[in-house]
Amino acid sequence: MIISKQKPFEEILESLKNDDTVYIVGCGECATMTQSGGEQEVADMKARLEEAGKKVVATDVAHSACHELDMKRILRQNKEAASEAGAFLVLSCGAGVQSVREGTGKHVLPGANSLFVGNVKRQMVFDEKCSLCGECIIDEYGAICPVTRCAKGILNGPCGGTNNGKCEVDSEKDCAWVLIYNQMKTEEKLDKFMTIHGPKHWNAVARPGHMDGRADEAEKGAS
Ligand code: SF4
Ligand code: SF4
Fold first, then answer.
1. For an engineered disulfide with 126, which of 66, 118, 173, 223 has Cβ 3.0 to 4.6 Å away?
2. Contact, 45 vs 16, CB < 8 A?
3. pTM for the complete prediction?
4. Which of ligand 1's atoms lies nearest the C-alpha of 134?
5. Is 95 within 8 Å of 65 (Cβ atoms)?
6. From ligand 2's centre to the CA of 190, what distance in Å?
7. What domains can be seen in the chain, in order of their start residue?
8. DSSP 86-126
9. What angle do CA 130, 132, 134 make, to 5 degrees?
10. Whole-number Å distance between alpha carbons of 98 and 93
11. What is the pLDDT along the chain (223 residues), one digit of tens a residue?
């Protein structure tokens, strides 16, 4: 899921300094799990903005704020409030913010910072394990991603700074290369550990990413 963290309230208020009327949008998926823009956070934000003298014309928690068609439907269904709003405050990741952007020409502002794609360890504890490089190579590394989990992204590690299994960049974090070594030892594949890996194909995904799954389906049907 996309891990996001709500921005400081003062920063949000500053962004809204020229807007008296606000429509708040949250997200029922990732922003709910990260408590940056679920039902509770949207209600809290409404109360705080009203206390600060703003008029909140509507609030909505979309099922998935990044779903553009659904977002357009929500804004259409609430067109009176949408037309009264001077600004749309979106408590979700940046994808959700830009989904709202597609549905209105008005001032749209992010109420949260998007941090990373995270695995859920337990409630409100998340770890980044994949950084969406576009070409997954972790079969060569015991299914532990050195691109993301090694602080230096080293493909032929370790770097030499490993200390008691921890990373020299952040001693709170495990050295990815110790994890990789231990896993390959468990799998009795230490011979592979010594393989020198060539350069990675860093432009496997041209940004901005785009995928049209329908084209793939059509190709499958034709073959
Ligand atoms: S190599 Fe790492 S960053 Fe790339 S897709 Fe695989 S897990 Fe994600
Ligand atoms: S100590 Fe380990 S995880 Fe940290 S930068 Fe070096 S190889 Fe990467």
1. 118
2. no
3. 0.93
4. 5
5. yes
6. 19
7. 2-115 (3.40.50.2300), 134-193 (no CATH)
8. SEEEEES-HHHHHHHHHH-SSEEEESEEEEEEEEEEETTEE
9. 130
10. 9
11. 999 999 999 999 999 999 999 999 999 999 999 999 999 999 999 999 999 999 999 999 999 999 999 999 999 999 999 999 999 999 999 999 999 999 999 999 999 999 999 999 999 999 999 999 999 999 999 999 999 999 999 999 999 999 999 999 999 999 999 999 999 999 999 999 999 999 999 899 989 999 999 877 777 777 6
117 CB under 6 A from ligand 1?
Answer: no
Lookup: tokens for 67: 């779903």
| Cβ–Cβ under 8 Å, residues 112 and 91 | yes
Report the alpha-carbon distance of residue 164 to residue 95 in Å, rounded: 39
3-state secondary structure of 63: coil
* Side chain identity at residue 103, one-letter code: G
Say yes or no: CB of residue 133 within 6 Å of ligand 1.
yes
